[in-house]
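Below: protein 1.
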Amino acid sequence: KLHLCDRPLFEAAADEIVNRGLDYMSRTPQNISNTIWAFGTVNVRPPSLLAALEREFMGTFSYYGRLTETRPLTKSSRAQLAMTVISLH
């Protein structure tokens, strides 16, 4: 984990993500994966962002659905899923 973190900056970024909605980020799963990784790296988990992510993950055209639509999973999809799980843990 990084030894420096501007928690208010991450919380403000999370508020902005929630206000704009995840739709603008969800064109590719990579965008959401990188965002989750960034917050996980500094151990900042704003409840509003986690709730928005949960809705996105469980939706009809969800992040998980897009990553797993091709079987067997591609190397990139496996890496993104693993990174997401580790970051949220």
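Below: protein 2.
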Amino acid sequence: DDSDISDLEEEQLPPWRQLKPWRWQPPEEDLGWLKMFQVPKVQVDEAGRSYIIGLYATGICVFFTFVWWGPPSARSIFSARSA
């Protein structure tokens, strides 16, 4: 039969390529309102974060290059002076 052939092929696969036994898969439980505390079961595509992270990284580089290690006049805008 066709199922016997697929079972034989699966047995010949290395252990890391074989299907996991059913006991390793947790049972599906309906948790009701507690679902909000669960980790998602599928990977969600992240969109837009790369631009925000890029802007922050650029800002940090500019700050340390031109303000932190820059001339004292560049730091004058951050010093607290009373009027």
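The CA atoms of residues 4 and 10 lie 10 Å apart.
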